Amino acid sequence: MKKKIIIVGCGPGAEEYITPAARAAAARADVLIVSRRLKEFFPEVAAERIDSGVDIEGTLNEIASRRDTGRQVIILATGDPGIASLAQPVIRRFGRENCEVIPGISSIQVAFARLGLDWQDARIISAHGSDPEVSAADLRAAEKIAILGGREGSLRWAAGLIPELGKGRRVFLCEDLTLPDEKFREVHADELIRIPVSSRAIILIIQGELLS
Ligand SMILES: C[S@@+](CC[C@H](N)C(=O)[O-])C[C@H]1O[C@@H](n2cnc3c(N)ncnc32)[C@H](O)[C@@H]1O
Question: Which CATH class is domain 5-102?
Answer without folding.
Answer: alpha beta
